[in-house]
User: What shape does this take?
Amino acid sequence: LLKFSSTPPLFHANNESSNNNINSDGNTDNSRNNHNNNNDALEEQINKRDQHIMKLEHNLQKLQSQHTQLTKDTATIRRQQLESTHRHAVAIRLWRRTNDGLASRVSCFETETTPAAAKEIAALIRDAAPGNKDSSYLMMLQDQLAKATIKLDHLASQTEIVLQKGEEVVESLREEMNEVIRERCRMEIELMDQEEMLEEEMKRLVLRTERRLKRVMGEIDFLEKNAVEALKNQEEEEEEDGNSVDNDDDNEEDNNSKKESEGEDDTEK
Assistant: This one.
């Protein structure tokens, strides 16, 4: 009976311990599951963030390449614009010079080809012609015409040679002019870029100087405040020292008067 009576509490105790162990195991499993779930969520967030960062880096590289290409295109467009501007200016000067030359020639031709001059030339030709126009005169005119045509052909060939050489010279001068214009445009673009960089540098220096001035002014104000406070404290300490000295003198006088009165009392006694 004692054995049977003693066994049930042990059994209940074993059941309770087993239940506690099961509960602790369940709690640990739940904590592990929560921890794993948190880790999975964090890993998923990290992966999403890495993907987003990779996408942003890819977009950044693309934008940088587009920016470099656009800067190159802008530089080439600016150079071409300056070159075309200079070429147009040179062409305008040449056309104006040609126009002035043609206008002067036209005015000279107009002044020379008057009706009076035409009548005078016709009279000279009529006087130079003989009265009897026979075959010898015609042969002479034909010979002169042949000589004149030969001279004209020779002059035409010489003119073609001169024009060809002139075109070659003009082409070489045009190439040199284009090279000079390109160099000039390149230098102008570089100077403009340097000017922009210098302006930005000047703005940065101005901002930096203003910040330094503000900081120095703040330090000066702080030092002035400290100096004023130190002077006030020094004056207060001097006043306190003077008051303490006056109090000491008053105490000494009181003590002396007391001693004198005591001495008089002693003498009277």
